[in-house]
Structure formats: structure tokens, C-alpha cells
Design goal:
Blueprint (H helix, E strand, L loop, with lengths): L11 H8 L4 H8 L4 H8 L4 E5 L5 H11 L6 E7 L9 H7 L7 E5 L7 H8 L7 E5 L10
Parallel strand pairs: 1-2, 2-3, 3-4
């Protein structure tokens, strides 16, 4: 008797373990719309980690942001390089579009001089679950605090 196990036959707990190895962009590009069961698992209590590197393009960030509309409450960590490959400033964009009420860790890197930090910091201060916040600008440019 040959019985094949398919990917969607895995237990929900195993899916949670698998998803821990991916950031939110990778999860959305790899698993969204595979089938109803996996989509429902994505809608459940999985915790999401956002990582936007300097190698990402604006189109990738927009794709991620479009999926975060329904998942922003699941985001617990963010690591963002503000200036990405096509010279777009991303930090302000992400925090204007989304409210990460369960955010625990926030790492902001290479902050662009056009980023309005006072507005950003005002919003971040409202995140009651935030444990770790790190802001780093490797070029020591004047950061816009007005």
C-alpha cells in the first residue's frame, strides 16, 4: 500500500515550526494561496518577523505591505534598512501604512536623512509590548528630528 504524504498533510504545529525559519516576505511569497488550509494557518496565530534589507526593491516592499494589511497584528519583530536598493526610503512608509500593536523588537538601520524621526518615534512610543528598540545610522548623517 503506497501512501504519499503531501506538504499540506503536515500537522499545524509543524507548519508553525517551518514558518519560524522564514521572514514575512518569504512566507507571503512562498505560501500564500497554495491552498485553503495553509492560508487559514497563515491567518491564525503565527508570529511574523519583517526583514527588509538594503538589497530589497520597492516593489518587494509594496508586495509585503499589501499582505501586512491583514497580518500586521501578527508582527513581533522588525529589522529594516531604510535606504534600499532603488534608493527608496522605507521606514516612514511602513510605519505610516501599518500599526504593529504586538511589536516586541524594532531595529532600524541606515536611516535616510528624509525620514521624519519625530513622527516615527511618536508612533513607536505607543507600542506597549516593545522590549527592544535600536536605531543605527552608519554614515552619521544628520538625522531629521523635526
Amino acid at each position: 500500500m503506497n501512501r504519499y504524504t503531501q506538504f499540506e498533510d503536515l500537522s499545524t504545529d509543524l507548519f508553525f515550526e517551518i514558518f519560524d525559519y522564514f521572514d514575512a516576505f518569504e512566507i507571503f511569497t512562498s505560501f500564500t494561496s497554495l491552498n485553503h488550509r495553509i492560508s487559514s494557518i497563515l491567518q491564525s496565530i503565527i508570529l511574523l518577523h519583517i526583514y527588509i534589507s538594503k538589497n530589497n526593491f520597492r516593489s518587494q516592499v509594496d508586495y509585503l505591505s499589501s499582505h501586512l494589511i491583514f497580518h500586521e497584528h501578527q508582527v513581533i519583530s522588525i529589522a529594516i534598512f531604510d535606504t534600499i536598493r532603488d534608493n527608496s526610503s522605507i521606514i516612514s512608509l511602513i510605519f505610516k501604512r501599518h500599526n504593529f500593536i504586538n511589536l516586541r523588537s524594532c531595529l532600524l538601520r541606515s536611516v535616510h536623512s528624509d525620514t521624519k524621526l519625530d513622527q516615527l518615534l511618536g508612533k513607536i512610543k505607543t507600542y506597549n509590548k516593545l522590549i527592544h528598540f535600536d536605531l543605527f545610522n552608519q554614515y552619521y548623517e544628520d538625522l531629521n528630528l523635526n
